[in-house]
Amino acid sequence: MTIIKRGLAALAAGVLSTAVAVPAFAEPVKFDFWFGLSGDLARVVDTLCKNFNESQKDYEVTCTSQGNYDATLQNTIAAFRAGKQPAVVQVYDVGTATMMLSGAYKPADKLMEENGYKIDYADYFPGIARYYATSKGEMLSFPFNSSTPLMYWNKDAFAKIGKTEAPKTWEDVATDLQALKDAGYECPMAINISANESWQLMEQFSALHNQPIATKNNGYDGLDARLEVNKTKFVQYVTDLKKWYDAGLIKIKSKDLGQDMVQAFATGTCQVILTSVGDHGTVGRTQKEGMKWDVAELPVYAGTERKNSLVGGASLWVLSGKSDAEYKGAAAFLNFIHDPKTALFWSTNTGYIPVTKSGFEYLKSQGFYDKAPYKGREVAIASLTASEPTEITRGVRLGNFTQIRAEFGTQMQAIFANKVSVQEGLDTLVKNGDAILDRFQQTYPGKTLP
Amino acid sequence: MEKRVTFSRWTIGILFAVPQLFLIFTFFYWPAGQAVYWSLTLQQPWGGGNIWVGLDNFRSILSNADYWNSITASLIFAAISTGLAMFIALVLAALTDRQLAGSWLYRVVLIWPYGIAAPALALAFRFILAPEAGFMAVVNQVWPGFWDPGLDGTDAMASIIVAFSWKYVGYNFIFFLAAFQAIPRSLIEAAAMDGSGVLRRFWDIQFPLITPTIFFLLVINITESFQDSFGIVDIMTSGGPANATNLMVYKIYSDGFKGLDYSGAAAQSIILMVLIVALTIVQFRFIERRVHYR
Fold first, then answer.
1. Mean pLDDT, to the nearest integer, of B88-97?
2. Same topology for domains A27-147+311-370 and A149-309+399-443, yes or no?
């Protein structure tokens, strides 16, 4: 009985205290932010949200992780159809085309303007801004977590073959991998060939070599874009990768097989990998004691005029159908994230790179890139800004691109398992990918990309 | 004269059935009807509108070689995993029923796998079957390149079959054991006194008497192998390599939720539903004839 009584008393006290507390302060406007990062990264986002809530009293953001990018988009769509969407949502790079046609967003540039924030859009690295901007250059969403791929190489192993620098061309890579194998390394280089690696193997390779992935400037100029990776330099690249795999210079590493390529590199098993700068921190934290390694820009074929690499990651979209008060909060939140100090916090705690020139300068002025764990990450900025983005190195804007990536994984696996030849596999990739694009176009009759 | 409890008016009967009917309508007929409607249209994922396309979705799916590959993979998976799960469970249950030493242990332990969620057990099997780190790494040491589910479709299919069967052995075991124990001891003892051995007693007495259970489990296992395989495929192979384990239910998920092609996925689920209904009808029509209910 006493427990119940005490419980009731506590409850009554609780009710009273909230009743008393409410009139004392103006309740902050609450709004939701859904994001797709998990684990360590989710904790960093939570801290970011806490910092925002403590930095002012008018708004309170509730940040909820949805597990991963796919789930975030799925859940947001389900919530939107039920009229319960969050104010701000993180959508991954390849979801941009779907978002642009959804009619479910409030353009970020308009939102900031309406709420009196002046954002200097020229301050964004062009390689990052153009990926998310419309073909006319309007920013419908705000770049958030951003990365680009780098080549990670083991300095100790390369020292054994008398090299102190990372190879810059694929021709050099081939020679070095052979030398590493001759020096007794079982796994000179690791790759994986699932849907995810479409990013570094197909998309980034094509951008660096200024090769199109699809017609219509990679889809920026219309929904009737179709794939053309079966007749670009990419064919030669896949042929070479397969040749090196057959010669034992490349091993396939994936989580399903027991060890993914980042682990394989960090433990010193494999000497070269191509992966996101976002893994820089992971390699540093989990590496074999005393192992010396560094990062470099992805190699290109000899005689190629190197172009900028593409940004990967996600941007923040503000959804339609919310109240003006919530939009004010969302604008304040986006402005907070845009701040160079937030960029420093973000890059320090994650492997992601700053998205604005001022953020990058601020990090440099704080000596961020001089210190050991972060040294080397400036290579990512160099890679992203290697050139002004061309019409086809702005990015990839294709509908249902997730499915095209899945098709990439399927065909690469067929090629590497010797089921089909390189050309046959890539032809099938184009054929099946075009069917996906065709279907996407039919789903949005009469609509055009902004 | 036998005393019967009857309802005087049929309305009372209906009233009692209403809550159940309501549940079935809300959670089955309504969504299924919605799926049929979606499969005949092209839905914009964000709800911006849809267009009527008639049977186009079905036409494009059925003319796609990948989809037929997915059906074949599903049928192979269903046949082998059902056979494996039922055979092992039957043998284990028969042994347990004979009160062999340690049978009390099987009885408890064998129920556990069914209680494990598919993704969790898939994760466990991913470690066990990993070619470079797990148990199979030892085999690969002896025969290099023997086991490679990352590139070899047959190995990948074998992995998910093993994981699925392992889960359903426990489930089947419980039913088989109950069926064995429902057989009157006197029948078996009488046969034993007539001099028949263990195997003869099994084939002539026990097996015919448990056919209703075998039939029930066959229907359940086949149905579940089409539906419950999702978590295992998602964690262990993601449908790869080269679509070798892209079962129908996984393809629905990846096309619908990852690819946001709601209409195509709806059409695929209609086809899957029709296929399961057809398989079940076939089983009732042709296999049930050989079942002896007491």
1. 88
2. yes
Q: To 10 degrees, the CA torsion angle through A224, A230, A231, A234?
A: 110
Strands A29-35 and A59-65: parallel
Tokens 């054991």 correspond to what residue? B177
Best CA proximity match to A389, nearest among A207, A218, A212: A207
Q: Chain A residues with CB inside 8 Å of B267's CB?
A: none
3-state SS string over chain A?
CHHHHHHHHHHHHHHHHHHHHHHHCCCCEEEEEEECCCCHHHHHHHHHHHHHHHHCCCEEEEEEECCCHHHHHHHHHHHHHCCCCCCEEEEEHHHHHHHHHHCCEECHHHHHHHCCCCCCHHHECHHHHHHHECCCCCECCEEEEEECEEEEEEHHHHHHCCCCCCCCEHHHHHHHHHHHHHCCCCEEEEECCCHHHHHHHHHHHHHHCCCCCEHHHHCCCCCCCCECHHHCCHHHHHHHHHHHHHCCCEEECCHHHCCCHHHHHHCCCEEEEEEEHHHHHHHHHHCCCCCCEEEECCCECCCCCCCCCCCEEEEEEEECCCCHHHHHHHHHHHHHHHCHHHHHHHHHHCCCCCCEHHHHHHHHHCCHHHCCCCCCCHHHHHHHCCCCCCCCCCCCCCCCHHHHHHHHHHHHHHHHCCCCCHHHHHHHHHHHHHHHHHHHHHHCCCCCCC
For chains A and B, count residue pairs whose Cβ atoms are closer than 8 Å: 103
Q: Is the whole model's pTM more than 0.90, yes or no?
A: no
Q: Which of B52, B141, B151, B255 is the best residue to mutate to test the A interface, defined by the most A CB atoms within 10 Å of its own CB?
A: B151
All domains of chain B in start order, with CATH: 64-290 (1.10.3720.10)
How is residue A37 written in tokens?
């990062």
Q: How many CB atoms lie within 10 A of CB A20?
A: 9
Give the pLDDT confidence of A73-98 residue by residue, as tens digits.
999 999 999 999 999 999 999 899 99
Q: Is the peptide bond before A126 cis (omega within 30 degrees of 0)?
A: no
Strand segments (E) across chain B: 41-43, 50-52
| Contact predicate A106/A318, CB 8 Å | yes
Q: How many CB atoms neighbour CB B22 within 10 A?
A: 10
Q: What is the pLDDT of residues A9-23, one digit of tens each?
A: 444 444 444 444 444
Q: Which residues of B touch A70 (CB under 8 A)?
A: 257-258
Cβ-Cβ contacts under 8 Å for A95 (sequence gap 6 or more): A69, A73, A402
Which residue in B has a C-alpha nearest to residue A320's C-alpha? B46
For A363-372, what is the mean pLDDT? Answer: 88
pLDDT band with cut points at 50, 70 and 90 for residue B95: confident
Cβ-based neighbours of A399, under 8 Å, separated by 6 or more: A97, A98, A101, A219, A223, A436, A437, A440, A441, A443, A444
- CATH class of this structure's domain A27-147+311-370: alpha beta
What CATH number has the domain spanning A149-309+399-443? 3.40.190.10
Any idea where the domains of chain A sit in the sequence?
A: 27-147+311-370, 149-309+399-443
CA A416, CA B283: separation in Å to the nearest integer?
A: 41
| Interface residues on B facing A, Cβ-Cβ cutoff 8 A | 42-48, 51, 53, 60, 64, 66, 126-127, 130-134, 137, 149-153, 236-238, 240-243, 254-255, 257-261, 263-264
How far, in Å, CA of B74 to CA of A108, rounded? 45
Q: What is the pLDDT of residue B100?
A: 64
Within 8 A by CB and 6+ apart from B265, the residues are: B252, B253, B255, B256, B257, B259
What's the whole-number average pLDDT of chain A? 90
The reply to whether A417 touches chain B by the CB within 8 Å rule is: yes
Does the pLDDT value for residue A425 go beyond 70?
A: yes
